[in-house]
C-alpha cells in the first residue's frame, strides 16, 4: 500500500474538518476568564460628557431617545476614610421655603438655603436632589420656624444628566401632583436652585418619567426651554443670603454671597452671637441699583472657638424708613 506523506495527510484532514463546519471560520481569540474580562462600557455607546453626574442603570427600561440616564442609588459608592472607617461627607445646600424676608408689596414665604452633610459620591447632584425630596429635617425645623417644602414626598429622582452646563433632571410624575400655582413654581425653583449650586450646572431642563416636559402640571406652567436661577427670582426674599447656608459651620472672616433687589442697591446686615454680642454690623450693596443684583461681601470678624451666631439682613423702607425684608441665618463661626 502506497504511503501518504504525513504533511499531506494532515492537510487533507484539516480541509475536511473546515468543510464540515460550514465554510467561513472566524478567529475569536482566547476565551476571557472572569479575571480578564473587560467590564467597561464601550466608549462609542456612551458618549457621556466628563461632567455627567449620573450613571446608567442597566435594568432601566427608559426609552434611550429620552436622553436621560437613569441612575441607581450611589450610597454604596461612598468613600471611606482609611484611618477610621468613617464616611467622608460633602456639604451641600438644600433649598426649601420659609417665612421671613417679606415687604409690603411681596409676601413671604420665600426660598431659604440650608446646609446639609451627605455621603460623598460621584453622583453628587443626584444624591443632593434625593435629600431635597426627603424634605426638611427635624434639626431644620428647630432652626427655622415654619420651614417647609413644596416638593411632594412621593417624588422619585430617576436620573440626572449633566452636559455642557445643562442638567436634565428626570423625576417621577408625582412631582407635579397636587398644589396650586405657588406650590408648583416653588418646587421647580427648589430643584433649580439646588442643582445649580454645582459649578458644572448653569441651567436645568425637566423630564417626567423619562419624557421631556414643556408644560408643567395642571397650572399650565411653560418650561419648554432650559431654566436658570434668574427665571425664579420672584421666589426670593428681597435680600437673599445664599451662602453661608443656615446651619453651616463657617470659618472667619465670614464671606457672604447672595442676591438682592433693594432701594439704591443698599441693604443692612448684623452679625451677633447667641448672647446678643454684636460682632459686626453695617450696610452692603448689590451690583445693580435698578433691579436684582448680586452681592459678595466679607465681614472682618474672628472668634477664638466655635461660636453660635446669627446673621441678620434687612433693608429700610424707602417709603417710611421702617425695617423690612428681614431674614435671619443661624450659623456656627469657626476660628
Please explain how this structure is put together.
The structure is a single chain. The protein is of the alpha+beta class. The chain has 2 domains: 64-235, no CATH class; 247-334, Immunoglobulin-like (Sandwich). The protein has 5 helices and 16 strands. It has helices at 6-20, 43-46, 124-134, 138-143, 181-195; strands at residues 89-98, 110-119, 157-163, 166-171, 203-208, 211-212, 215-216, 221-222, 239-243, 249-251, 254-260, 266-273, 278-285, 293-299, 307-316, 323-334. The protein has a 5-stranded mixed sheet with strand order 10-16-15-12-13, with no helix packed on it. Helix 3 (124-134) packs antiparallel against helix 5 (181-195). The chain is globular.
Summarize it.
The protein is α+β, with helices and mostly antiparallel strands. Helices cover 15% and strands 31% of the residues.
What tags apply to this protein structure?
16 strands; 2 domains; four-stranded mixed sheet; 335 residues; Immunoglobulin-like; alpha+beta; five-stranded mixed sheet; single chain; disordered N terminus; globular
Task: Give the helices and strands, then pairings.
Blueprint: H1 6-20, H2 43-46, E1 89-98, E2 110-119, H3 124-134, H4 138-143, E3 157-163, E4 166-171, H5 181-195, E5 203-208, E6 211-212, E7 215-216, E8 221-222, E9 239-243, E10 249-251, E11 254-260, E12 266-273, E13 278-285, E14 293-299, E15 307-316, E16 323-334
Helix pairs in contact: 3-5
